[in-house]
Amino acid sequence: MQLFVKVPDFDFMSGRRIAVLLSCVIIFFSLGSVGTRGLNLGVDFTGGVLLEVGYSGAANLTDVRNALADAGYDTALVQNFGSANDVLIRLPPSGDEEEGTVVRDRVLDTLREYDSSVLLRRIEFVGPQVGEELTEQGGLAMLFALILIFAYVMLRFNRKFAAGTITALVHDVIVVIGVFSFFELSFDLSVLAALLATIGYSLNDTIVVFDRIRENFRIVRRGTAEKIVNASINQMLARTLITSFTTLIVLSALYIWGGQAVNGFAGALMIGVIVGTYSSIYVACTVALALKVSPADLLPAKRQEIDDMP
Amino acid sequence: MNRYPLWKNLLVLGVVVFGAILALPNIFGDDPALQVSREDGQAVPEFTLSAIRSVLEEENINYIAADFEENAVLVRFDNVPMQLQASGVLREALDFYIVALTLAPRTPAWLRAMGLKPMSLGLDLRGGVHFLYQVDLETATQQYLGTYVADLNTQFREKRLRARATPEQTFITVQVQREEDRGAVSEIINELNNTTGINSPLGQADSVIIDETIIEGQPSYEIRLSESQIRTRQDFAIQQNTTTLRNRVNELGVAEPIVQRQGINRIVVQLPGVQDPAQAERILGATATLEIRLVDWENDAFEAQRRNRPPLNSILREQRDGTPVLLRREIVASGDQLVDATSGYSQGQPAVFIRLDAQGGQRMLEATQANLRRPMAVVYIEEKPELVERRGEQVLRTVREETVINVATIQGVFSSNFQITGLSPFEAQNLAPILRAGALAAPIVKVEERTIGPSLGQDNIEMGRNAVMIGFLLVVAFMLIYYRVFGLAANFALFANLILIVALLSLLQASLTLPGIAGIVLTVGMAVDANVLIFERIREELANGNSPQASIRAGYEKAFSTIADANVTTFIAALVLFMFGTGPIKGFAITLSLGILTSMFTAIIGTRAIINLIYGSRQVERLAIGGGTP
Fold first, then answer.
1. Alpha-carbon span A89 to A96, nearest angstrom
2. DSSP one-letter code for B118
């Protein structure tokens, strides 16, 4: 079996103006959505109390809500989680750290009063301070990763490729966050991890294409940069699609069978893989071309021997 | 010809076999188990084991085995519900024992003898409680300054100097009220640096900084702790708190707990198997101590309460039912002198048995001799941290609650050993460990808590395992169909990769969490990428009309730099995740970076070894790599 019987010859780069427009629109909407709707941040970031409880039968959410409201927790968010028997209760941060403990005990007591068979499955209490730190750490981690990656790509390729890589990565991060914001999906710690994994994956994809461009720049001395870039993308197309496919297979398995706890992770990364595959072709290469990347950039090819070491 | 030298083949084989041995303990699985140990940490006697067995048999609870393991008894069960039922029954039946939920690996003895262990599972996979505490370091230094104040004032008094030390927020002021005492006062203050100086690596550092000022027209001094002293004090506070928390965790009787410092001022506590966070917290968070005082029986407590003014030399306290009690100001014995506290029963009543040190014993002896047939009170003092709003800022404050838990008539003379009664069984059981575990050096406040019930943990393990297996099988099937013999080689490599990841995780004893499993799954997806790159390259070379052998060589060689670049950059991302991340993110970063390392080995060197064995040493017409190649 073979995806393409011979190397395909799609003219990717001629469509790059449309792609740029498309990317700009998506990014505009993503940022707009984050700006207006915000992100449905999980307890990990906002602080607060989250309880997951299981009942022996289907839980009556209205009763649970009423019982909690009677106990003074009318701000509690009550919803099913995974199955009809499982209930997720989320309480916003009270501002008082010590109160988290009291809230937990009282909510549990209330639930036990209502139905003594209730089984505690999970509690998360995060102080507002810890949540803030996490947001800060997550942002810092991302920034740091981007800087290091930029440095590495600049060292191994050149400035123009590095700019293309970083633009593609920032593009992916914004789009994934935009999707989470638009569909109001819960953005928790595992989604943050998925976002960082997206960076890793998209990067992988971009580097593979760039590597081939660099190689072709050295062999094919004639032809415009655009032609060579286009040919390189085509040469790597089978690989790009197959790897995206296998990664998506595994992520689907995780999404379907991995349980609620990794759902957010798998979902976010699936979006990330798709966006990353697109961006490595259209965003990364387009930016490199816009910066007038040319074979001349790589002419002092003194690193050749090291590169091709088996 | 494509042939690896013998040593290279042996290396591949060796690494995989070695990895397989390291990973072996993981295939035996765990039994839900109960660990029964004695409250005082002594070895469990033989008769308790038989008692456990008979209790379980009486209640018709099936268990797989019940045996000694070190100082405790380990009882294994078939399933979690059975384990939970048994834990309730045993807790009821065994006094003075701690029954802890745990998972017992079924690793056979010969593997254990080699020091091999299965991967340790994170709390999200095995259930348990995770607390993150923040230590209030400011209070710790303030408390330390407070000891200086008392010390200085005592010295001033003894030397009849007219000077007074008062504590402020971060410093002490000493006001000299008589000009001629100034020299002597200054000498005493400067002495602080000689007596309490600390040894730093740079030599003796000053522990306090002394500034001269004028307050209310009088010559004064401001004393503050030096930077190095503050740091030392804070380190001490964290260390002591960690130790105290560890002691308390031990009182809880949890199997494999973790108590460690995190960052500058935080302590993380992980209690696998603990189900009731509230109970764990009561013991972890409370700072409790005892005071024993004589009751002031000559004055009317109700009268004092009504006027809200206790008589001189007495203090007014309340019993738990709200009844007022007048106590004598001087303390007979206090928690510092406590050597041991155990819970139990005295004449059918729940009781806590207390043992004091020699000094405390002596004081008790004198007090009881002089006050026979008079009442004596036990005051329970609990300090709880509380966040309050002060000038728009959240400030930690310690609230001190004193309750008289017991008033009893002194029936006889006693010294070091006595008992406190008048408690509920539950209180007696909680009080003893709290008293034993001592006090915290600085107040702590909980900033994060995560509790995973055991059933959810079990679900997470099963779902995680299923997801990995299904994902793995799907990818394997695809590779086989798409790349034929080469796909087979890649699949062997993938399997070896999985074994190596598990082996490394077992070796490092880094705990496997659910995000960690996600990392493994992702590695499986991405490990294939290296092989896809190589195989596509080989197909390309074949399509260009190169011979099969040359294509194999060129495919591996040319794809290498691409694979290396791609993996190094992903590795950078994983490394950054590891450095910045905490908890779940770290777990993901660990498996991802391990996976990148192992997959580089298996996907490049591993598959090459297999391909070389199949095709390397013979004339090949065509390669079974799938597709329409000639």
1. 19
2. P
Look up the CATH architecture of domain B287-449: 2-Layer Sandwich (3.30)
Q: Mean pLDDT for chain B?
A: 82
CATH number of A13-41+130-307: 1.20.1640.10
Q: Which of the residues B444, B470, B483, B553 would you substitute to probe the A interface, choosing the one with the greatest number of A C-beta atoms within 10 Å? A: B470
Query: Is residue B244 within 8 Å of B440, Cβ to Cβ?
Result: yes
Residue B286, classed as helix, strand or coil, is coil
* Nearest CA among A223, A275, A221 for reference residue A248: A275
- R_g over Cα of chain B: 34
CATH class entry, domain B6-25+456-616: mainly alpha
B-chain CB neighbours of A135 within 8 Å are none
Contact indicator for B552, B537 with CB cutoff of 8 Å = no
Residues 6+ apart with CB under 8 A from B174: B152, B163, B164, B165, B185, B189, B220, B221, B222, B223
- Domain spanning B30-105: CATH superfamily: ACT domain (3.30.70.260)
**pLDDT, tens digit (0-9, with 9 covering 90-100), for A60-113:** 888 888 888 887 787 888 888 877 888 888 887 765 555 566 777 778 788 887
B302 touches chain A (CB under 8 A): no
Chain B residues in contact with A136 by the CB 8 A cut-off are none
Q: Which A residues, 126 through 155, put their C-beta within 8 Å of a C-beta on chain B? A: 126-127, 129-130, 134, 137-138, 140-141, 144-145, 148-149, 152-153
**What ipTM goes with this model?**
0.86
The whole-angstrom separation of Cα B618 and Cα B630 is 18
Cβ atoms of A181 and A30 closer than 8 Å: yes
